[in-house]
Specification:
With 148 residues, this protein is α+β, with helices and mostly antiparallel strands. 32% of the residues lie in helices and 33% in strands. It is built from four helices and seven strands.
Length: 148
Amino acid sequence: MSIIFRTLSGVVLCAVIILGICCFWLVSYLNHSEQIIASYPTLAAAQEDIQNGWIPPILPPSTYAIHDSHNLDVNTGDGSFSFDPKDISLFAQHGVVPMADADKDSELIKLQTQGYKLGMYREDANSKWLLAVHESGKGYYWLEYTMK
């Protein structure tokens, strides 16, 4: 009986250890995300991230001080930028559709109360850009990308 008990205890102990290792690996994997943060002094300097789809392709040529953060694992991103206030009309000319309200998002509501104009831009069927631009030449963007 004691041999069976020791063998069974050993098997249970090994199973608990293996289960613990698997849980640790799973939690480590799920908590790891590939977050990329970058800053660019000009639009020209940001061209690689624009071509890779991390920065909106419709920013005016005068755009500068771009700060971008995107997550490669979940295909989302956001950022801020500055531009010449004279270029604010270029957003509408490039297809940004104005949004009337911020739809309960507290960050967007705050920006809207500060005078930011909200807009949506769809580069293609899978990507959606939300933009907030101010007539002073400051802007923010958020990327939501849906995998097929």
